[in-house]
């Protein structure tokens, strides 16, 4: 087919695909906006924002979607960040956002991602080892040896038991 004269090549050319969706989270501690790809988990976003904080800046606890005269929507660490549309903005919530009474509570720390981003890094905590815990472990250890000794005794006497049963047949 031949092109018709006067036909604009821009009209028939396919449109480029739209840019991939992204979400913007306003960070109060940094005073700037962080951008994340769609389907980013809130825990990952919080850990990245916390890594960028200067010393002395309050840590980010979680991310909320806020709108004037609406109840904020909080995102948990495993929730996927979502843009709720017109008027809704994603912003961080920091420790300093909770006034005096609430600051004394212990907030659950959202697990940080490991350096390769694959899974949350484990944090070491002080173990609670009590006397009762140690006693239970000792009893389990003794029971293990008693069970092993009883199986050993049964296996040693198995030939005698077989001979005894065969003598009646």
From TrEMBL:
What sections of the protein cross the membrane?
131-155
Q: Which UniProt keywords apply?
A: Membrane, Transmembrane, Transmembrane helix
Which stretches of sequence are listed as region Disordered? 1-23
Mark out the compositionally biased spans (Basic and acidic residues). 1-10
Membrane recorded as keyword: yes
Q: Specify the protein name.
A: Uncharacterized protein
């Amino acid at each position: 087919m031949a092109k018709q004269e006067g036909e604009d090549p821009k009209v028939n050319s396919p449109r480029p695909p739209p840019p991939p969706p992204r979400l913007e989270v306003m960070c109060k501690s940094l005073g700037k906006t962080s951008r994340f790809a769609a389907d980013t988990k809130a825990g990952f976003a919080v850990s990245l924002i916390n890594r960028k904080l200067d010393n002395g800046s309050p840590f980010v606890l979680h991310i909320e979607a806020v709108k004037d005269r609406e109840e904020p929507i909080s995102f948990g660490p495993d929730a996927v960040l979502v843009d709720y549309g017109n008027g809704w903005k994603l912003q961080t919530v920091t420790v300093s956002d909770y006034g005096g009474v609430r600051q004394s509570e212990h907030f659950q720390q959202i697990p940080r991602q490991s350096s390769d981003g694959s899974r949350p890094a484990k944090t070491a905590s002080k173990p609670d080892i009590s006397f009762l815990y140690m006693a239970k472990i000792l009893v389990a250890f003794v029971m293990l040896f008693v069970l092993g000794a009883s199986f050993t005794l049964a296996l040693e006497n198995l030939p005698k038991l077989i001979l005894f049963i065969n003598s009646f047949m």
